[in-house]
Specification:
Shape: elongated
Distance between the termini: 29 Å
Enzyme class: transferase
Organism: Leucobacter alluvii
Strand order of the largest sheet: 6-8-9-11-10
Number of helices: 11
CATH superfamily of the largest domain: PAS domain
Protein name: histidine kinase
Subcellular location: Cell membrane
Largest sheet: 5 strands, mixed
Oligomer: single chain
Keywords: ATP-binding, Cell membrane, Kinase, Membrane, Nucleotide-binding, Phosphoprotein, Transferase, Transmembrane, Transmembrane helix, Two-component regulatory system
CATH class of the largest domain: Alpha Beta
Amino acid sequence: MRFRVLLPLFLFGVLAVTAILIPVGAAIAQSRTQELQLQRGAALQQIVQRATPAFESGDARELESYLDRFTETFGETAIVVDGAGERIAASGDFASDPETFAVISSALRGVPQRDLATVTPWSSRTATLAAPVTLDGRTPEGAVALRIDQQVAQRDVGAGWASIVAIGAALLFAVLLASVFWTRWVLRPVSSLDAAANALAENREYALDADAGPPELRRLSRSFARMARSVELALDQQHGLVADASHQLRNPLAAIRLRIDGLPRGLGDPGSDAEVAAIERDLDRLEHTVARMLALANAEHRATAAGSGHGGAANDASPRPNDDALVTTSAARLIAPHRERLADARISVVADDDSRPVRFRRSDLEEVVELVTDNAAKYAAGSTFRIELRGQGDGTRTVLVMSDSGPGLASSEIPLVGRRFWRAAVHAQLPGSGLGLAIVEQLARANDAEVAVDRAPEGGLRIMIIAGAA
């Protein structure tokens, strides 16, 4: 959580410093560019003034001498051309390129180029300025082009930027350091609350520091302590209710079944026999629902404990999924106990015999397969049931895939699979509790695994249990 608090603070600091440094950096580059432009603009104008007598007299020797001295002084080259673009005088190795030719052509049309693009460390090393040479003040008789060396200006801009970046980094470090101390003080009670909440969820003793951090969080700690006492009382009442309900429901159901079994049958009243049979079917359904509810409650309890980062509650002696639950099995061995049930439903089985390691408690894995095959036997009779174990990714995960070629579900119904007591409309009249796949999901959670449900390539339902492999 500290990182989540520090990150926005640091990002805000970065944005604030950047918002200051970018305009300052732009101002440095623009100022240095303007200085260079003024200096070289004045030099360009002097060359234009000295070129005018050369055009009038036709003698360019003095102009050539001036250009040579200019190049020796500044290390930059210049060229003077006539109206046809032919060279009149030049200094240094003035090589014309398309960009330079375009600038000179613009000057010959009376459009001077005296502005420089803003100089940055990654700008071009040279830039070209050009101005027309006019004798009557209107018609260009030629043009002067000056190739400027921008490297010194680039180094100056880079040095200026490095300075402000160093200042910005120092500011960011100061902001980060202050943020670390601030968040540590603010989040100290939050960490204490987190540890206490996990301990409460796992029925362990917890220690809560209610005198650390800001006043608001200290009040929150005291409120949490009061709430924890209420939650512990509610959990105790809930656990007691589940245990009492299981006994109170099972005993009357058993007594009713004994009474039903003791009723006389075959006395010549078909209506009475049918009623007894209907009552027995309802009892079977009720007993099945009670058993599934208890199984779901147990799976949810274990899944919640596993989700908190611990293998179970303090009073749960079962092994953690990541400790002793690495089993090596095959799809054929998993489906073997259920082949007869599937055969009774006219379902053919295709099972892979390759063994793979699965980090899943063996009893839970067998129960998952039992629940899925039970659904297939009820809802996909006469189809083909396929089960396989396969690796995923870099071998750190194993996927148990179970699919059938039955009628399946509508696309809009697939996302609803796994909801408690949910059943598809076409299955409403068939026996079932609507808890099977909900239990599968909770058993998977208890073993740090995931469940994915979609449409099988054969058309039915496909259920994938994605678990660890090592």
